[in-house]
Structures are given as C-alpha cells and as structure tokens.
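Feature request disguised as a bug report, sorry. It would help if multi-protein outputs had a clear separator. Right now it looks like this:
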Amino acid sequence: MGNPSRFLPSCFKVITKTAGHRKSEISKGNEKHAKIQYPAALPEEIYRYRQFSLTEIKAATNNFHPKSLIAEGLFGNVFKGIVDDGNFVAVKRFFPDSVQDALNEFQTEVKLLCQLRHQHLVSLIGYCNDKDEKILVYQHMKNGTLRDHLYGCNYDPLPWKQRLEICIGAARGLHYLHTGAKHAVIHSNVNSSNILLDDKWVSMLSSFGLSKMRPQPSYSNTTKVLKKINSRLVGTVGYVDPEYLRGCELSEKCDVYSFGVVLFEVLCARRSYDSTLDENEQFLVYWVRWCIGEGIIYNIIDSYLKGKIALECLKIFVDIAYCCTNEKGDTRPDMGEVELMLELALEMQEKADTELVDVDPHAALPEEICRQFSLPEIRAATNNFHPNLFIGKGGFGTVYKGIVDDGTLVAVKRLRQDTAYGLKEFRTEVQLLCQLCHQHLVSLIGYCNDKDEKIVVYELMKNGSLGDHLYGRGYDPLPWKQRLEILLCARRAYDSTLDENELHLADCVRGYIGEGTIYNIIDPYLKGKIAPECFKIFVDIAYCCINKKGDTRPEMGERLEICIGAARGLHYLHTGAKHAVIRSNVNSSNILLDDKWVSMLSSFGLSKMCPQPSYSNTTKVLKKINSRLVGTVGYVDPEYLRGCELSEKCDVYSFGVVLFEVLCTRRSYDSTLDENEQFLVYWVRWCIGEGIIYNIIDSYLKGKIAPECLKIFVDIAYCCTNEKGDTRPDMGEVELMLELALEMQEKADTELVDVDPHGKYMYEEVSFCISISD
C-alpha cells in the first residue's frame, strides 16, 4: 500500500517538529512576553454593548475558578460564568502578560463581533476594559464544541443527521462571513473547537481574533475567485491550507480548505492531526484523501456511523469534503456551493430514512396510490380518441388531450399493444411515477389497465414541449404579420423591385426600429394622424409579431429557467431516491411546460433503475447496467452506443445536447443539412473550437445574451457533451452552473442601460474559444 505522507508539503513536516501541546496554534509573532500597553480607545461600536466591571466578572466566574474553566487558548482562557439573575455566559479572559498578538486578537474580535450578526455566529454580550484586564463576554454555548462531541469521552456519539445539521449551520456562518457583510471576512482559524453548539444544537462559529477583513470583490469573470491578501501565518495544525503555507497568502479558499478538514473529522471522528499515529496517518486530510483514492473510505469512517449513512448522502458528503481540500485553491468550491451540497446530502439522508419502496418489475400496479380509470372513462375523456384531441406521438404510443370529472384537463398516453416493450414501458412508467415526487417531474394522475388497452393519465402541460417553442410547431403567425406590415407601411411584404437590403419588409422594418427611425418609413398618408401612444403600442406589437418564427420562442432568461428546472428534475432522478433512476431518453420533446412555464420531465417508459453506489473513488460514476439500446437519434451518448452501457452520464450527455438546442434553436439531428452539420452536437463543438459559436446561435438571441452568461452556458453544455463520460459533470454541478448563468444574465440586465425604445437588450457580440481537452 502506498504512503499518503508523500503528498505532505515540506512546510507541514517542519511545523510538526515544533508543535507542542499549547502550540497547535501557528502564529509568527514576537516571542518576547511583555506587558501589553492597551490603547485608551476601543472601536466605537463596542459601546452599544454592556460594560462589565472587573468585580462583576470575578463574581460571575468565582474569581476565575479552575472549575469554571471551559477552554484554553494561545492568548487567553474561556470560563463559564453566571450574571444577573442566573444567565450563563462565556467569559474570554485575555492573558495580561502575553505577546502583542493578544491585543491584536482582542481588538479584532471586538471590531468584528460588533459589526457582524448572524444566527450561526456567536453573539457578543459585553466586555470589560479594565486597566489590567481585557475580557469579552459571549452567550454561553450549553453543548460545548463540535470537537467535544467527536472525541470527548463524556458525550454520546452524535447521530449522523445531527452532524449534518451542525455542518450546514457552520457552512452558513462561513458563507455569511465571506459574502454577507460590507467587508468580506476570512475567519482564518476554522476548526472543530471553534464550532460551538447551543442548547438546541444550533452550531455557531466563534474565535474571530485571527480573522481578516477586506472589501468585497467585483466580478472579473464567472469563476468565484476572490483577491488574496498577505498576512502573517495563522491557523491550527492539520487545518491550514497548504497553498497558504507555501506562499503566505490568505483568502476565503483557506477557510474552505479548513472546513473540508472539519467535514472529514465529522465523518471519521478523528483529530485533524495526531502525532501518535504512523507518519502516513498523522494528518487526517491526507490520510482520508488517500483512502478515497484507494476506494476504502468506508473502512475509516466512525464505526458508530457504519450502516447508518445513506449511500446517496455519503457520496455527496465525501465528494464535497474532497473538493474543499483540493490542493489548489481555485479548484475548491465557495462556501455557498458547500452549503447547498450539504443541504442536498441531508435531504438524501432524510429521504432514505423514509424507506422508499423499491420498484418490483413483477409487482402489482399500485391501485391505492393513484387513480385507476376504466376504459369507458378514458374514451369519454378523449371523445373516443378523437383526432382533434391528438397532441403527439412517441415510440410506444400516442398522447391525447382529455377532460375528466369536473373539467380537469389531462394528457392521456395510449400505449401501443403490438410490442413487448409497450407493456414494459407502461409498467415501468406507472411504478416509477408513483414513487417519484418532484416539482420538475410530470405528475401521474392515474392509469387504465384494461385487457386490451394500457393507458397512463398525466397532468396536462398547457404550453406543450420545449421543442414546440424552439421550432414553432403548431404556430403560424405569418398571415397576421403580413397584415400588420401592410397596415403600417402600405407596402408589400416582399418587393423584388427594391434594393437587396429592402426586399423583405420584415427585415427592413426591424432595422429601422432598432435605429429608432421607424417613423421615416411609415405611410406618408398616416404621418401626423397617429397618436404617439397608439403608434408606440402598434409598433411594439408589430415588432413582436415579425420576429422570426413568430417569436413565441422564449427569451434567454426563460430558456435558462426551463433548463434549470429540467436539470433539477434529472438531479433528483440521479440522487434523490433510494435507487438512482437513469432517464435514458432526455430530449427537448420530453421536457414539458405547464401553464406557468415550469418545466417538467416526462416519458419514463425507457427509464432504468440501479442501486445507489458505494464509493470506489471520488468521481461520481454510478455502477453501469447493460440494456438494449435506448434513446433518440442525435441525443445518444457515443460511449453508450459503442459499448451498450447505460449510466447517469448518458443523461448528462443528452441534456448537453438539449442545451445546444436551446442556444441554437436547431434540431439535434437534421438529415437535410450538409454531412458535417447534421448532428448538432458535433457541429456546435467544432464551432466552439474554432471560436465561431456566436455565428450559429439563434439569431433571435443575438444581442440579448450577457457575455458572462453565454460563456458559462456554452462551457457547461460543452462539458456535458464530452466524449468520455467520466469527464462530464454530474447533474448537481450542471444545475449549479446554470443557476450561475441565470444570475449573470439577471445581473447584466439590471445594469444595462436601455437605449432601445422598444425595450430590447443589446449586448456586444462575443466570441471565444474553448480548448478541447477530452
């Protein structure tokens, strides 16, 4: 077996030689202990808090009695105290004879705690500014520190869900420090001893004496990298970012690294550094990362937790801790992302704890869970499957619009009976949809299991499919467009006698509207006879109508929200149930839109289920299952085509193709095009490599996509469609990046000065080249 200690930076090994019992705190300061000369003035904000006299403090702590001692630190000790009518407090007494750094810690902590307020930061109650004593008084944390409960002999082991909740609280506190205040705060000393627990087990960050402040950064690109600041070395052995140790640079990513170590502590119930162990096991972070790489992480987790952690939850938790402790800071997530992933881990644990019923391919259909329709009811609802109620057709059947009961509109999927797969699809879809519940999955209302008919009834998606709105199926705005054009300008829609740039009235008018000179080309007879308010409304309507394909197509923000919804649905399928569900046929026709334009995944007849995985490594690859080939031309993962293996990464690939469809408004496969352009995914990836992606995006979107948003969107679609499945992101990562893209679009839209009288955002054209590395 290899030796993980070979990965340790040399500076770690130097530090451990000099680290003693009280010197776990790393601090380069003045080694001479001299009487501190305290300044006369404290930060102005401190005077809003109660000022205790030294006499009151001594009375509260029984004159700093040893039995009241809670904790010892480098610059002072913490005592339990009782003030007033029995309120418990924590009294931090800074050493009167200590290094100058003690004064700095006191001043920093006072300044920060006076400015910061958050439910996951410890609260300041008051202070004592006596001539010879500098003391801070905090709310008392009844349940001590996280460290106490991980290693303490006097406490029962914490249940796994409680550990997750504690971690989430601490993550929220750190996220607030990094982004929630006027000045970003780098805690600098995140460890399990500085995460306190109140009487309700709510976690609080404490000990801000080594923290640093700086102005919040502006965005220079889509990567959340904050400007670093230089400082003396601070932190605790076993938690300190190796990049920081090498270069004496401090950033939020140092806190992220330290928090990742805490996550490993929580999982393994082992100290971050233990000099009594073999050299290759002394630093917890390196030992755990090595075990993950070897696929033996389960062997070293806290024995109390074994058999109590849901595999879906463990997978997410280990992955986020591993990412937090990446060697390079710019590859670590920010605390907002960590918080979200920990919340997802908790959600997965809670769902697993409810013991979701497995799908049994031979089980009876769930009559008690959803409504069973009779065939006469279905025929009545669809007017005996009347052609006028036909909505769409799939590989195994047709879909009709129907009306049931008191007028409720439904979609009725009538499966073909001439294939064995039709019956299998019916059973799979009913059983899956009875178990899966998510806001971005289409809801099952009921089914008909008649001898001669197999029918599934869903909620009706009033706005059709994403494909309908990308390609304009069922929309024919041309006659109305022509009427509006002729009414306004009194000229033909097409006039071959005019110059080339004026042949098509629609294109000509759009140009004049964009330049603000539309009034120049209207019918001379109408000039001076149209009220300005009427003219503006009329032009606005006409502009919308003459956009290509009728402009029922959604704006970029709407497209992003549709994609995010679909991504959330897929993410839930892959990780949100006891068994991972592989969708197997992701395409724009199977993403439906309800009356509020919320996207829903549909058509689960080809879906596959497989057990959630155990960790063999940190890459999120689930055990693959063999199956007949399934999918739609243009969307199918090339790896799957070559080897007939099915995994969640196949869904990711197909979703990447959908993203390209959304951007380019082009079908995934079009046999009428030149051979090199027939498959959208290969054509777009080639254009990206050539730096000409902007040339092929939907012309309707040109000038309307913020460059920052476009870059993120193209990047995530490109990664999803990587040739090798193990280089593609998982759907949770896709979801996060799409949310970031939407955030960038909304931010840019609010800042953009609207110079177009018709309210059309116009961004500069952008071009960029993504290096092809797969």
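(second protein starts here, but nothing in the output says so)
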Amino acid sequence: MTTTLRSELAALSYKKERLTSELSETRSALCSKESDVENLRAQAARQTALIGSLQGRLQASESREQAVQARCDATIQTVQREKRASDERNKELLCRIQHLEGAAASEESHKEQAKAQLHDLLRRLSVCLGMDVCENNANSHATPECVVSRAEEVMIELQRAKAKVSSTCDTLSSCENELLNLKSLANIEKQRLSAQLDGAGNHNHELEGRCRQYERDLQLQRDRLTESEINGEKMKEELRGFESRCHRLQNNLDRIQADRLQFLRGLSNLLNVPEPCETLIKDKLRELLAENQAMHAQMHSLRDQLSNEHEKFKETQESAECRLRTGEAQKCELSDRLEKCHAEIHTLRKEHMGLSEYLQRLAAALSWSECSAPPALGADTNLMADNLLERAERLAAHCEHEVSHHHAGGEKSCCDHHHHHHGQGKLRRERSCHDIPLKESSSVYNLQRRVRVLREQVQRRDLHLELLRRKLAIIEDGARGKCMLQGERDEAVCRAKKAAKQVDKLTTQLADARGQIAEVKAQLAEAVEYKITSLERARKIDELTTQICDLEDEKTRMLSQLNAMKERMKSSCESNQNRRCRDEALINSLRDDVSRLSAQLSDANQRLSHLQSFRTSVARTLHLRDLPETDLLHRLQALCSAHQEFTLLSKRYETASPVGDHPCPRYDDPVPPSSHCRPPRDLSPPAAHHHTSASHNHSSHTLSHSHSHGHAISHSHSMHGRHHQRQRSKSRDKRLHDECFDSDVHRLHHGCKDQLLANNSGGSCDEDYDFKSKYC
C-alpha cells in the first residue's frame, strides 16, 4: 500500500513539475505576446497617424492637381479658340486673295478687251481719216475729243492734213520709243509682280509652315511651362510645408528644451540633487539603478523562495489531499469489507454452531462417548471431525467386512466402489463393541457420503477463514496507516497554515517592491523616452536642414529654368509678333494692289465710256448713227482716200510738176519698206496698272506736242518752197507707210488673237491684211 502511494505520489510530483514548467512557459509566452501586442499597438498608432498625414497630403495634392487641370483646360481652350480664329482668319484672307486675284484677272481681261477695242477703233478711224497708224497707236492714250477735233479739222481743213501727218511722223518715233519703253517697263513690272506673287505665295506657305511649327512649339512650350509651373507650385508647397515643419520643429525644440529643463529640475527635486545637472542626475540614477538591480535580485530570490515554498505547500497540500482521498476511499472500502466480514463471521458462527451441533449429534449417533458436549466457540472442530470420520470409516469397514461374508460379490463391488471414491489408503478397521446390523448399511453409506461432503465444506470454510484472517490483518494495517496519515495530515495542515502566513507577508512585501519598481521603471521610461525623442528630433532637424538645403538648390535651379523658359517664351512671342506684323504689312500691300487694280479698272471703264462717246461723236459728224463700226470705218477710209486724191489733184492743177521723171505718188502706190523700220517684236502685253497709268500720263503730253508741232510745220511750209515740200512729203509718205505696216503687223501679232477684238472687229482685220498685201 505504501509503495503504491509512493509511486502515485512520485507520479503526481512529476505531473506537478511538468505542469509548473508548462505554466512558466505559458507565462513567458504570454508576456512575450503582451509585449508584441504593445509593440503592434504602437506600430498601429504610428501607422494610423502616418496614414492620416498621407491622406491629408493626398487630398491636398488632388486639389492642387484639379486646380492645375482646370487651369490647363482653360489655357488649352483659349489656345484652341485663338487657333480656330487664326485658321478662320487665314482661310478668309486666302479666300479674299483668291477672289481679288480672280477679280484682277477679270479686270485685266476686260481692260485688254477694252484696249483692243480702243486700238481697233482708233486704227479704223485713223485709216478712215488718213491718219498715221503708228501715230494713232502712239496716241492711243489720247482722249476721244482730240480724235473728234481731228476729224473736224480733217473735214474742215483738208488742206492742213498733210502738215499734221508730217508732224505726227516726227513724233511717231518718239512715241514708238516711249511705247517700247513702256512695254519693257510693263513686262518688267509684270515679271516683278509675278515674282512678288510667287514670293508672296511661297512666303504664305512658309508662313503657314512656320505658323504650324510655331503652334507646335508654342504648345510644347506651354506644356513645358505648365509642367514647370506645376513643379514650381509643388516646390513652393513643399517649401511652405518644410518651412512650417521647420517652424514647428523649432517650436517643438524650444518646448522640448524647456520641458527638458523643467524635467531635469523636477528630477533633481525628486532625486534630492542640489543642482539640475545631467552628470549629478546620471550618477544618482546609476545609484538608483544599482539599488534597483539589488532589489530586483533580492526580489527574484524572494520570489524564488516564495515559489519554492508555494510549490512545496502545494505539493504537501496535494499529497495530503490525495492521501485523504485515498484514506477515505480505503476507509470506505475497509468499512464495507468489515461489514462483509462481520456478516461472514456471523454466518460462519451460525455454521460453526450448526456444525458443532451436527458433530455432537453425529457422535451421539455413532455412540462416541468421548464427545459428550459440543465444542466451544472458536475451538477447532477439525480434530473432532477427524475422530468422527475415522470412527465412521471403521464402522463402515466393519460393516463391509460383515457383509462380504454374506454377500461377497455385491459387498466386494461396493467396497471397491467405496475405495475408488475415496482414493485413500486402507484404514485400520477396528471393531467396536456395538454390533452394526445389516439393515443399516444403506444409511451408513449415506452417512459416509454426507461426511465427505461436510469434510469438503469444512476444508472450504477453513480456507475462507484463512482468507478472512488475512483480510483482517490487512484491515488492521490500513487502520494503522490511516492513523499515521491522519497524523501526517495534521502536521501538513499546520505547516500549510504557517506557509500561508509567510506567503501573506511575502506577498505584501512583493506588492510594495513591485510598486517601488513600477515607479522607478516609469521614471526611467520617461527619461528614456525623453532622451529618445530628443535624439529623434535632433536627427529629424538634421535631415530637414539637409532637405531644406537641397530644396533651396532645387528652387534656384527651377527659378533659373523658369527664367530661361520665360525668356524663350518672350523671344518666341516677339518673333511671332514680328511675323504677324510682316504678314499684316503684306496683306496691306495686297490690299493696296487690289485697290490700285480697282482704280485702274474704273479708269478703263471711264476710257471705255470716252471711247463710246468718241464713236457717237464720229457717227454724229458723219451723220451715221445707226451703222456699225465697220461701216463707219469704211466711210472714214473712203473719205480719207477721196481727200487724198482731191489734194493731189488740186496740187497737180495748181502747179506743173517740176520733175517729169518722178510722177507724184499716190496713196495707193506700193512703197518699198525703208531700212529704218524695225521688225515686229514678241513683247508681252504690259501690266494693266502700269500701262494704264503710262497711257493716262502721256495722253495730254502727246496731244499738246502734236498740236504744237503741227503749228510749227505749217509755219515752215509757208517759208519753204513747193518743191522741197513735195520731196519731204514723198519721203515721209514712204516712211509712214513702212511704219504703219510695221505697227499693223505688230498689232496683228499681239492683238488679233484676242477673242473680244476678233469678235468686235473681224472685218477690219481682213481689211488690214488687204491693205498690207497691197503695200507688200
């Protein structure tokens, strides 16, 4: 029992040690988890603060980005509107230029048509009036009134026509030279204008390409400017943030220094230091830390002692409880066994009494005189039972011997059967003094059988009694162990009470020590936190100062870039302004050209109206109003030829011819071309505005010159003789015919291809060809 209790106690102590180790491990794990939880909470707090600051910065950056996007959209819209306006203006200007070019071309065609008509009419009139074609062609800028006056003079003064023709021959060369000069100047001016138009078109294309390039450059510069502005705004915001942070950090630094000084003063007051000096406070703190470490060591030793005592107390308490539980269980079991044993003893006593009575009755039945009284209670009945059994066997053997003589076969088998059943050796059979009758053999057999059964029962009951004795010994040992356990329990309870009192004292001391340690730890933690915060702030201040320096450098660099971009934008704006001014000047020059062309067109229209009035005046003079121009020209030509014939005839009849071999040439006689006649030139028609202005400028001069020269020639005719006059008229007639032929051929080359001239003067061209074939 004690070995089992000791083994159980050892197992329980092992379990207790294992549970205490697991408990210490769980406590250490719990402490580490609590420290991890605190660290995670601190990290979560820092992360939440950082997330809040980042969210604020993100919102600020989003607002700035939205504002910048709005400004960019506004600038893009304005640039797009300006571009659309400039495109529309360019398209409008191009349309206007094309329209003006078309109008100028149409006006030039009208001018050429009117000029051709005027030349045709003047030629026909000159042919009809007998005037010099070159003179009329040179005097193409003359007014119709002059021609009308000339016709009136022809009609009124036929005598003076010869002098006027001779005067016009002198001026014809100069007019021709002027005309050629004017044509060359007109060609040069036309070439210059065409070159200017080509240059203007090329310049316009170049300007369009430059405009597109400048628009792209402007867009790129604007994008760069917006990016630089955005970067500048960001830098400004960051600078403001850094400045505000620096101010806050400076304020925090001042506040921390003040708090540090106050903390040092409070710490010096708490530590009983005379001056708030760091060295004294550090020395005092080192002393306190040494004392704290000593107290910690003492506390750990006390804690170990307390834990050991507590463990011992728990072990003793648990062992006592286990012993009490096992003792109570054993007590209950033993009480149950005791009750069972009492019941068995009672039954055994009853059986013993019955057995003793039975043995006494059996002894009386067997006539055994030695057993006169039943055996006493607690006496051994085995001896009496053995004696009775031996007597019964002897009686049985005697009965068998007696029966064997009378019944040898049956008795012998019966004896053998009896000997086989008992399996024991032969007993010495003695004959008693009583005789056993034969009729009692069956009853003896039954008695023997009952004796064997009773013997077996007695053996079994003896074995049971032996077992009961052993159980009683075990119960007595358990009772003695229970008494010992009760004594040990009482001792353990006394020790536990003493240990509880000691534990209470130690817990109070531990609580006081923990309070002191907590205070010292709080002070140390505050000091460490202050030191850490001061170091972190110093590091942050250093980092911010370096960042401020970097940002200052970046700011200067960005300002230089911004100034460079501004200079570039300014130069590009100035160049665009200059190009715009040049384009406007070119457009103004084109407008002036268009206005000049319109003025020339109006002049041509006015001259056309004068030509129409001249035609009407000629028709009125000839009293032919409803005839076409061809008929008028035929009439004038016939009139001029008749006048020429009349003058020649009158000259013949007035004086005889002094030269007989040289008859007076007629107007229709072919004259060989003179050597001074120029071949026809393929000159392009002059420009409209130049030719019109030149013709308008030289018209009055030509008329005045012709009139003055006519008067001079008439005066010379009166002074010289007739013969000299005829020679001069003959040479002049030849030169006149040659020059008229050359001018007609030149006009044919340059004027007959015009559609309007062909439509208006088809018949006159045929007559001119007939006239020239006559003189060729």
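Even a blank line would do. Unrelated, but nice: Confidence is low (pLDDT under 50) at residues 133-142, 409-439, 656-720, 739-776.
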